[in-house]
Amino acid sequence: MADHATSSLPGDRGYLSEQGWRSWALTMDHKRIGVMYIWTTLGFFVVAGILALLLRLKLLVPGPALFSDHTYNVLFTMHGAMIIFLFIIPAIPSALGNFFIPLLIGCRDVAFPRLNLFSYWIFVAGILVTVGTLVAPMDTGWTFYTPYSTRTSAAVTSLSFGLFLIGMSSILTGLNFIVTIHTMRAPGMSWYRMPLFIWAMYATSVIQVLSTPVIGITFLLLAAERVFGIGIFDPAKGGDPLLFQHFFWFYSHPVVYVMILPAMGIVSEVVPVFARKPIFGYKAIAYSALAIAFIGFLVWGHHMFVSGMSTISGVIFSFLTFFVAVPTGIKIFNWIATLYKGSISFDSPMLYALSFIFLFIIGGLTGLFLGSLATDVHVHDTYFLVAHFHYTMMGGTVMGLFAGLHYWFPKMTGRMFNETWAKNAWWLVVAGFNITFFPMFILGMQGMPRRYAEYPAKYQPLNVVATVGSWFLALGVIIMFANFVRSLRNGEPAPDNPWRGLTLEWQTSSPPPEENFHEIPTVTDWPYGYGNRNEASRDH
């Protein structure tokens, strides 16, 4: 893949060598900033997960139980807002993207290191403002729909400002990545020699830059509505509450691909390494990422089929919804083609990548029901949508993140994790996930509405199954994180290239030195030549 590979020195902790909180808080090293994003986002993943467990406990019984319906609404809002805005959106782009984009393209750092640090602290400031809304807890649901969000006593105005800051951080990060990918690739790294994770992050960054200003302006309008009563969303003053939904989903559907495209990029890296085969359809996978980014801006209306839009508009949005599945299908077929007749190693990163493919296929196929005008009327705002959303977001994005964390953990930390623990955790996570969310498809088809704290008794058996499944899922996540934490101190020292990868991050030490490479590498081949006769000579 490249010349000038480096090796670890005994006792060398690379970018982790310098200690002290100042060395982290004021760092401009993209790797340290990436690690800070990892700890921050995973922290909110844990908090949001605990809230989800509380919600499932209440849903064990159909009537009043455990806490009030208002508390349920607050916990539901906090779970959704934290998992979307504070975990899924920044977890891979800002965390793993920050750490690995410069390593994968063979440069010292991102284009604007100071802006990178500024982006993180803006993100933290947004978190502090958002968490401050617990003084008057949000009960609107994570979509903050008007007119209720303009009238509730909850701290919507301060929340709007917090999300505005988080959005600003996302925009600055996306701009930084675009400039870095364009201008700082190693000598010899043409566009068609870039790793597919970089293609995915490039498409993601474009979405961040173009779509995030819309949600920022939307929340500013919402705050102005509450403070000044300007009437943008108030019909009595000539406004339209549905306008908020159009603004919100014009951002929120493209941002679905901010969540999923980086996970797809991780899968594109993991599958050829553990199948020991060249990636099938490299250019098709690369261009499909850009196609998803473009078409993703055109399909927001399928969230509003029952809001009263015209039949013609519904038909157009339905067609575009089906059309966006084409580039997604290209990726899936190419991953499966890569696996075909491969020499597959079922290590934990590969297990999570395969889980991504399987679960995301289920999420995608069930999306056909929601993209069809006739069936969407029946399953809209039911538990069918909850199941679909979690199969795409957790079955997709989170499984992709777990694949990336296991794949790159040795490189980030210089330690190997316990593979037995990792596989045991995988079994519990995948089994618990399916036991939790698959019954929700059935509940939705039977007509159980989502976001309700109480429900008819006939839905209780499947809710009990879903709640028990959530305990297995939580246990699997606990074991996984315990494995990571234990391995940080007691894991076996990691070799520079434990998976025999050909991309540039594996050609430097584990963990990488502060400057990434002792000499900037020169790229001489594409990064997916697995199984070729020359592969052995390129493994270091």
UniProtKB/TrEMBL annotation:
Record-linked SUPFAM superfamilies: Cytochrome c oxidase subunit I-like
Pathway(s) this gene product operates in, as recorded in its UniProt entry: Energy metabolism; oxidative phosphorylation
Chain ranges of the Cytochrome oxidase subunit I profile domain: 15-524
Location(s) in or outside the cell: Cell membrane; Membrane
Membrane-spanning parts: 36-55, 75-105, 117-138, 158-184, 196-223, 243-267, 279-300, 312-330, 351-371, 383-405, 425-444, 464-485
NCBIfam families reported for this sequence: CtaD_CoxA (TIGR02891)
UniProt record similarity statement: Belongs to the heme-copper respiratory oxidase family.
Function field: Cytochrome c oxidase is the component of the respiratory chain that catalyzes the reduction of oxygen to water. Subunits 1-3 form the functional core of the enzyme complex. CO I is the catalytic subunit of the enzyme. Electrons originating in cytochrome c are transferred via the copper A center of subunit 2 and heme A of subunit 1 to the bimetallic center formed by heme A3 and copper B.
Protein name: Cytochrome c oxidase subunit 1
